[in-house]
Batch of 3 targets.
Target 1
Amino acid sequence: MRRLRNVKIVATLGPSSSDDATIRALFVAGADVFRLNMSHGSHDDQKARYDIIRRIEADTGRPIAVLADLQGPKLRVGTFSRGTEELDEGARFRFDLDPAEGDATRVCLPHREIFAALEPGASLLVNDGKIRLRVDRCGADFADCTVTTGGTISNRKGVNVPDVVLPLAALSDKDRADLEFACGLGVDWLALSFVQRPEDVREARDLARGRAAILSKIEKPAAVKAFAEILAESDGIMVARGDLGVELPVYTVPPIQKRLVRAARAAAKPVIVATQMLESMIESPMPTRAEVSDVATAIYEGADAVMLSAESAAGQYPVEAVATMDNVARSVERDPTYREVIEASRKANRQTVADAIVAAAREIAETTDIKAICCFSQSGATASLVARERPRVPILALTPVVATLRRQCLTWGVHCVLTDRVERFKQAVVSAVRAARDHGFATDKEQIVVTAGVPFNVRGTTNILRVAPCDERLIFNMDPE
């Protein structure tokens, strides 16, 4: 099965998409990566979904990536004696550690670490930012505030603290248990929620022990400020616009999205744009025009993937939502302006031999009649470097490592093929030619570019490039390496 687009689609599974038939339909409609949201559902629920995905993978012969999204630390107020209260603008309100039920003047905020970090003038946001309060006075166990935006506050609503870096562990006890479960299950990517600092990523990497790649969700102002350091520690990035749009002025999110996508692309690390992309399709079979434009914008920016959350997990039209994303992606990538935008945003990254090899592969492919760039890679690094170039021809990533194969399902334009281990470059070329022909990328009379590293099966040794005919009889007449 060959996708007729380069950008990848991530679909979240949930109550609307937990059975074999629906998950299979989502894959056929265009889902390349399935997200398991560890905030919802039991471990048994997630295992059942994972097992279905792997059955579909075996039946279709195509790799599928699975991303486990960890919940992260959740900050919530306590409960109210009447269930809800109205907070009026200008009113005084206190958060404290007293577990007694709240009223119109106070409520418990059972997070001592918040009070330790607060300073006068800081903001507290409740219920996705619908209620905003300014801290006037605070101590180790309280914060006296003024309501700047009023509204209805109710039991256990979420709290955001945008102005300070909270001294919170990146991973709660639940997250640690979920991480171990997900790694044991065999997921390919772990998404970390509410990352604030590079140390958060390192902690998760230590716990994962190489069993899954680490993807950092950027959804806090602190993460935006420390993005360069977080990116360096991460294998991939998600621009999680939901909480980012709560904690920052909503009009600042689009330029932040653009900067983060470009930075991740320059680092040759996959980047997902997520949250409310086709939100209306939770209840409608058709998206709004604004939503279609939002998806298209992420694709024009060069994002590796776009993601569906509630649309595919809990909506009434999960398959239609994936099909809509697929259609939008195909339409954008056929637009001549798309190539102009993508190529104008390409930066020269020629610091290593591997950088030069993949840049040369792209230039050769675009100036001659080359049908595909085929790269052999143990770790997937070569394919990621080629994808950073955003070539006009397809990218085939060939690897004998199943974990690498699946992780590359998140990378722009990469068609993954499992191969046998090779020891000589001529064997690699033959395998590439067969893959290009078998998967419909080239015919006997056409040519491909092959990149690899010698010695083989050693990470980070990309150092060779060859233009090869797709006729095996001609390959065996090549000069021996």
Target 2
Amino acid sequence: MKKADNRNFSTMNIKLNLRFIPVTLFFAVLLCGGVCRAQSTSALRTIVIDAGHGGVDPGAVSGKIYEKDINFKIALELERMLREGLPEVKVIQTRRTDVKVNLYERGNIANRASADLFVSIHVNASEKSSANGHSTYVLGVDKNKQNLQEVMRENSVITYEEDYQSRYEGFDPSSPESYIIFSLMQNVYLDKSMELAELVQQRYAANIPGMRNRGTYQAGFLVLWKTAMPSILTEIGFISNPSDREYMIKESSIQTYARSLYEAICLYKEKIDKSAGVSQIATAKPASVEVVEPAVKSNNGVRFYVQLVTSRSSIKNVAERLAPYGDRVVERKAGGWYKYLLGGYVTVAEARRVLTEVKERFKDAFIVAFDGDEQISLAEAGRRITENNSAKK
């Protein structure tokens, strides 16, 4: 594979399409190489790249062309670009050879590494050869039937795994009803995930103007289910479409896809670094994406809080540092971290109203639950409340 010169951005090696990219992004792309290196500290420290499928799971297939191989080539080229262009950022691959990695383990790799970004690379397929174009997804629910079929196909790989029914909590990848669970998700990283997804699509559109831009969507991809960081899954095109397939198998196209992802990540990094520079207080990362019970009524010991920030050390002058909410903040210490919470509210609805209020000041705030001094998941909170309500009848 011919290596691309990745040392800086210039108008020669970035073909910008201003119909798709705002003027502010135009200048950001030109400056991104220098801006990213200039940061002495960064909010983006670790990126996990996930080459979809592998081993006995080939992914989508067309003749002797396997999705797993295309994904892997792009993942390696993206890693090379990141290591050269953003040497301060740690890059981790979920697989470095042609092996099968279970979907749950891909997310676990990112969680164990305390990653700041998870990027899963895939190739699409359809029964209709006319379906074409690139798209990028974040975790959520999409009612589009065509997208649901694509999600079902990707999720069906869990059937290669032993004991997958208990591992994925009874999830049936072929049942539309199973996807209702994603409507109950409290995806605290939705905004940042969607921000990166949109940047990826913009860079695809600029670098591959001849291919259809299908846009960004929310969908129930299991590989994104429990990643505790901003996460996306990108579909670079349809292997079932002759034009898309002809393009994606070229070595030059592998570099173009990787470069588009690299440029999007660099732009994303610049944005979050600017945001992180506003405050030195660390924002919290929940251990997993939580499920919110839809009908929380009243409770006994269960209370809901809005978590604003966490810090390794106790924050002095809380009222001033966390203004205008400081005088209402509760400090709790858990796992070596000091957590600063607003609460506790009897219902999730109350906590949600406060969450909406504080989002302008604390963009990464989210809802947590406690039963006495025990922090519990929102799903467990809903279960305990339901049990309490049933016991009172």
Target 3
Amino acid sequence: MIRHRRTKIVATLGPASSSPEVIRKLFDAGADVFRLNFSHGKHEDHKATHAIIREIEARSGRAIAILTDMQGPKLRIGSFVNDAVMLTVGDKFRLDLDESLGDQRRAPLPHPEILAAIKEGTDLLIDDGRVRLRLEKVGADFIEGIVTVGGKLTNRKGVNVPGAVLPISPLTKKDRRDLDYALELGVDWIGLSFVQRPEDIDEARARIGTRAGIIAKIEKPAAIDRLSDIIERADGIMVARGDLGVELPLEEVPGLQKRIVRAARSAGKPVIIATQMLESMVRSPTPTRAEISDVATAVYDGADAVMLSAESAAGEYPVEAVETMDRIARQVERDPFYESLMRANDTNPEATTADAITAAARQVAETLNAAAVVTFSTSGTTALRAARERPGVPYIICLTPRRETARRLALVWGIHSVEVEDARNFADMVKRACDVAKHEGIAKDGDRLVITAGVPFGTPGMTNVLRVAWIGEESHPA
């Protein structure tokens, strides 16, 4: 089974999409990656869903990636005597470490780490910014401010501190339990929440090792300040626009999205655009025109994947949401201006043999109008380099002996992975490439393939060979 687009689709699974029948329909509709959100559900539920996905993968013969999202720290106020208070602009309000129930003048804030990091003059956001305080006093066990945006405040609402780097690990005790369980299941990607600095990636890496790729969720303003370092240490990036839009002015988010996509692509790391892409389809069978344009913009920018959250997890039209996203991506990629707009973000290759070979492969493939670029890759590094070039061919075929690599690359732009044995020599390499391309329906007799590989075969990260092959009764390297 092949997709007739290069941008990938991530579908979050949940109550609306937990049965084998619906998950299969989502896959048939175009989902390339399934997201398991560990903020919700029990371990046994995720285990059952994981088994369903792997069964679909076995039956379809197409590698499917599973992304597990960690919940991350949740900073919340405590509860009130009457469950809620109404705050008006100009009111003084206090948050402190006292655990007693709150009232019209104060509320408990059981997070001393916030008090340690915050400064006078900082804005503190409560309930996704529906209530805002401008802090005037900061003590050892309290903070006090003036209400600048009023409203009803109820129990256990979330707190955001846009202007501070909080001394908090991205992995809570719950996350560590969830992470260990997800790794035992054999998921392919871990979505790391609450990333503020590159050291957060190091902490997760120490626990994960190479068992899964790490997706750094960019949702905190502090992460923008260290973006290059975070991208360097992570395996992929997610633009979590919902959380960014809480802590930053909304009008800044589109520009930041483009900046993050450009930086991730330059580094050759897959990047996902997430949050509210087709939000109206939670309740409606058709999206708004603005939502269609939003998805299209992400595709034009060359993002590796676009993601559905509530639309597929809890919405009334999960399959239709995937079908809609698939149609939008295919239409954009047929646009004559697609290649030039996406190429506006291209960067020059590094001065290495591997980058030089990969850049040459793109140029040769486009000049010859090749059916595909084919990479032989054990670790996936060669395939990631090929995808970074965004070649103007329909497919990048990755031939790999490792199932884990094939699955992980299901997230990456343009890559169609096939699990094969390692090539024995040049002739075997070319024959395997041609056979797979024909078998998968990607190429036919007379078509050309541009093949990259590393010699000696099976050496991770070694890309030093470029071959052009014709497909016919026999394979004739050119």
